[in-house]
Amino acid sequence: MNPTPPISDRPIRLYFLGSGDIGVATLETLTRAAAVRVIGVGTQPDRPSGRHQRLHATAIAVAAGRHGLPVDKPASVNAPEFIERLHGLGPDVILVVSFGQILKPPLLGAAPFGCLNIHASLLPRHRGAAPVHAAILAGDAETGVTLMQMDAGVDTGPVYRAAREPLTGRETTPDLEQRLGRLAARHAVEWVLGVCRDGWQASPQSAGASYARKVRKDDARVDWRLPAAVIERQIRAYLPWPRCWFMLAGDAGERRIQVVAATVVPDAGAPGGVLRADNDGWVVACGGQSLRLDRVIPEGRGEMPAADFLRGTRVGPGGGAVK
């Protein structure tokens, strides 16, 4: 049982830790709640990104700025100076949403109600750094968000509540992140008050945990030996990064082709073989069924329908071959 007495006579003093877009809706909801006072926001330091590698603030830092909230950008949230700053602020609870750093025990104990985490899966399924990608890659019928009490493990802490979200099988990672972000925001105030005011008790996670490791750049190279359904899920999961790709070999050498959208079709053939490349579509055989490539990004060019690319490029027998 949590020995901290419930807070009933004042707003909950909350410190928010987050970095990704998925946490923006929750932060904004909390700033509007009369029963919660957001006393500060911690996020990852500005990082270089884009073609010119200019420094950019996280989505959470930008959102906090819109609301006039003080923002910390520690290189490490486990540094003694940052933990000392938290003690000085005096939060009742720390809420973590897609932050991106491991929290060690001194930080986990820096507030009376500890650190709560809203995780973007139905724990214990898809613990780890990439739960949204993992739900799409696995072809899950549903996913959701889970409120847990953080401990020293990776998403292993006891669970307070979960909210479910059905999946259609057409989601991309950005789409699903937006939906789960809105779902978390709808429950955030109720969940924080439930723990800090109503005395909710968390329950240990059930058996059957799975782990969603961090996505790597190499994950996105298309392996045509896999079933078409698996590759199609990878295409949706790896948007906008690292984005699935393959090499197209031709007389002018090899070109990298990124795939933005594709459809599973029943055609069969040797994996990697081009079954059709004409006005009716660009179809490549896989380890089971085939994929019709719908939208692509050829190396050095912008996104386009695959049919537009084929009008200027010979693909298939006598032309370019996929690798």
State the domain count: 2
Give the full name of the CATH homologous superfamily of the largest domain: Formyl transferase, N-terminal domain
- What is the N-to-C succession of helices and strands? EHEEEHEHEHEEHEEHEHEEEEEEHE
Helix/strand class: alpha/beta
- Average pLDDT, rounded to a whole number, is 95
In helices, the fraction of residues equals: 10-25%
Q: What's the overall geometry?
A: elongated
Describe the 3D structure.
This protein is α/β, with parallel strands linked by helices. The protein has two domains: 201 residues, Formyl transferase, N-terminal domain (Rossmann fold); 106 residues, Methionyl-tRNA Fmet Formyltransferase, Chain A, domain 2, CATH 3.10.25.10. The protein is built from eight helices and 18 strands. The strands form four sheets. The chain has a seven-stranded mixed beta sheet with strand order 5-2-1-6-7-9-10. Strands 12, 13, 14, 15, 16, 17 and 18 form a seven-stranded antiparallel beta sheet that branches. β6, α4 and β7 form a beta-alpha-beta unit. The chain starts with 11 loop residues before the first strand and ends with a strand.
How would you concisely characterize the structure shown here?
The chain is of the alpha/beta class.
Feature tags:
323 residues, alpha/beta, Methionyl-tRNA Fmet Formyltransferase, Chain A, domain 2, seven-stranded antiparallel beta sheet, 8 helices, 18 strands, 24% helix
